[in-house]
Design brief:
mainly alpha, 60% helix, elongated
């Protein structure tokens, strides 16, 4: 398994996904910022905050090798506005780059994350991260 290539391909896919997320956040009209498409779902602004928190948990799990959503509220404490969300996402993207650079030195054949009791390898785990992000579009 070519670790560097796999990680670079994930990083490229993630950069594309992040660009789509950022464009989505940027294009929401001010009057729709607190819009909810259904009473069972939080408004867009809260969904964006949720995306930030869960993203932080995904990054942490790359390090700890165990998904723990109990920390998701710790990743965003700023006022809930577009600029803050985009800024925190940008900071987290930089953290992910550093984490991925560390993982490049590992054997991905031995890389696993405990995802709520399911053992996932790097590729499967990174796909779940992208799927979660895209599901909020």
């Amino acid at each position: 398994m070519n670790t560097s290539l796999i990680i670079e391909e994930f990083a490229s896919s993630w950069a594309y996904t992040r660009k789509m997320t950022n464009e989505f956040i940027k294009c929401v009209p001010k009057e729709k910022w607190d819009f909810s498409h259904h009473p069972k779902f939080g408004p867009l602004s809260q969904q964006f905050r949720h995306m930030v928190g869960v993203y932080g948990c995904y990054i942490d799990a790359f390090i700890s090798r165990k998904m723990d959503l109990s920390k998701k509220k710790a990743y965003f404490s700023e006022p809930l506005n577009r600029e803050n969300i985009l800024s925190v996402l940008g900071q987290m993207d930089l953290k992910l780059k550093g984490v991925l650079n560390e993982i490049k030195n590992e054997d991905l054949n031995k890389f696993t994350v405990d995802f709520f009791g399911q053992s996932m390898g790097f590729t499967e785990y990174s796909h779940v991260l992208i799927q979660h992000e895209c599901s909020h579009f």
